[in-house]
Please model this.
Amino acid sequence: MSVPARPVPAPARTDQAVIRNFCIIAHIDHGKSTLADRMLQLTGVVEGRQMRAQYLDRMDIERERGITIKSQAVRLPWNNQGQDYVLNLIDTPGHVDFSYEVSRSLAACEGAVLLVDAAQGIEAQTLANLYLALDADLKIIPVLNKIDLPAAQPERYASEIAAIIGIDPAEVMRVSAKTGEGVKDLLDTIVGQVPPPHGDPDAPARAMIFDSVYDTYRGVVTYLRVMDGHLSKRERVLMMSTQAVHETLELGVISPEPLPADGLGAGEVGYLITGVKDVRQARVGDTITSASKPAAAALAGYDNPRPMVFSGLYPVDGDEYPELRDALDKLRLNDAALVYEPETSTALGFGFRCGFLGLLHMEIVRERLEREFDLSLISTAPNVVYRVVMESGRELRVTNPSDFPGGIDGYSAAGQNPKGNTGGKIQAVYEPVVRATIISPSDYIGTIMELCQSRRGALLAMDYLSTDRVEIRYTMPLAEIIFDFFDQLKSRTRGYASLDYEPAGEQEANLVKVDILLQGQPVDAFSQIVHADKAREYGLAMTAKLKELIPRQQYEVPIQAAVGSRIIARENIRALRKDVLAKCYGGDITRKRKLLEKQKEGKKRMKTIGRVEVPQEAFVAALSTTQSDTASRR
Model:
C-alpha cells in the first residue's frame, strides 16, 4: 500500500495556509505508533523497504516494551484536491508518567487526533490526555482504531466518545492502522478541520523549544516550533531565558530524517543546531529569537513539571560518580521532567536524589542511564515528598526518609520529646494525595472499592459511561499508589481496569519513620516513611528479607526495625561457629571449657568492635523496585 518515496521540499518559508500541526493522543497500545507508520507510508516519506514497525520510536527500550516514551515530530507532504499541504505530526506517549511530554507537544499543535481502541473503548489515561487537549483549545478529531479486530464494537464505543465530547456518533471516524483502512480519509479530515497556524510572519522571530537531544558530535539539537517571524541559517539567535547568543549552524525539518533548510517560517516545526555543548544552554520551554532584532517578550512556555516520586540513584562503583553526574545532565536535556540533586548516604556513598513523574518514569530513567551511559546503579525504594510542620512553626520538605525528623536519633511521632537537634516536636505531617480515576467493567465495582478503601482512599463519585462500563473517582494518598496498587487493580479486574491520577493537594496523616538497625546502627538506605498502621508490616518484611541477604558473621547480628526508640520487629543472623574442640582428644573437661570460654570472649570483643558490612548485592536485592507496577502497565 506504500507509494514511492519522494523528496520533501524544505523551502526557506512555507505559507501558513497550507501548514497543519497536529498530534496523536491515546492510551497505551491503542495504536498511536502504528497509525503514524501508516501515515509515513501513505505520504511517501518512507519507502516500503525502509519501513519498520514503530518507525518513530528510536530507542531500544521503546521497541522492547512496545510503548512510546519520547515525543517525535515528523513533516509529511499531502495532496488534497490538487493542493499540496505540509502536515507536522507529533507522536506522543500514552502513559500517565509521560504526560509532561504530551503537554509540550500539545503546545506546538493546533489539532489532536484522539485515538481509541474499538475493542476496548475509552480508558482513564485517554480521558486525561483528552482534557489536556481541551485545555490547550485544540481541534479534536475522534477516531476509532482497530476496526478490523473480531472483538471490535465501533458503534458502541463511538457513542461513548460522542457522549464525552458532545458530538454526533457519526462524526467519529473509523480506521484500521494495521491495514490502512480509513487512514487516507483521516489525513483529508485533518487538512479540512485542523486550523492553520496564526502567527505573525512579519513580527520579530519567536520560536518555542519543545524538546532537545544531545548529539556526541554536533552538540545540542533543539526541536522548536516557530510561532512568529522567521529564522534563517547563519543567523545569530538569542536564548531569552539565559540571554546567551549563538550562531545557527544548521536548521531544517524532520521528514522523518533531518533535512536541512535555508530557514523556518511562522507555523513551522523543525530543528536547530548551534554547536552548543553545554546542555544547560537549551532549556525546554525557552524562547528563541533573533539576536539582531529580538522580540519584546518571551512566549509563555510550559509549567514546570512537579515530581511525584523520589528515589536515590547511586553508582555501584563509587568512582563512577562523575560519570553519573554527566549522564544525568545529558539525560535531562532529553527528559525535561527529570529533577535531581546531589546527596550522600553513609551506606551507599555519593549519589543523587532524583524526582520522577511516576514509577514507570523512574524505571525508564534508570534503564536508560545503564544502557546509554554504561553505568551500574543502585536505586533506593521510591517515596513521595512530605511536609512536616514543627511546633516551633518551622516547616520541612522531606524527600528522603533519612531527613525525616524522627527515627532512632530523633522522635517518631507528633508530641514526642526530641533527642536530636531537629528544633522541637512534630506538630503535623502532610502527605500528597491524588485524584485517581478508574474505568472498569461494572462487574468489578465491589473489588475495586475494597482495594481503594484498603489503601486509605475516599470515594468522590461514580458514573456509568455505558450500561456495563463505570468510571470511579477516588482521593488517595500518592504513597499508597506508587508501589503495587496498579498490579493489584489489574489482577483483581482480570486486566480490564485502567488507572489515571493527578495531584490533588495534600492531607494530614499519621506517618512514622521506620528505621532498620544492624547491630544497633541505623542503615539510612533502608529507612522508610509509612503510615503508623503499616509500620510493623514493613518492619517484618524488611528484617526477614535482610536476614536472607546478609552473610553470616563470626558473631550473632540482630536486625531490628524501630519506630523511634521502640523496636517493632527483629530477626537474628546466626553466628558462624568454629569448632575449637576439634583438636581435643580426651583430657579433662576443664580444658575444653577453657577453650570455649576463650572463644566466647573473642566473639564478645568482636561484636563490640566489629562492623557489619552489607554487600552491594544485598542492597540491590533489598532495594529492588521489581514490585513496581511498570510491567503490567505496558
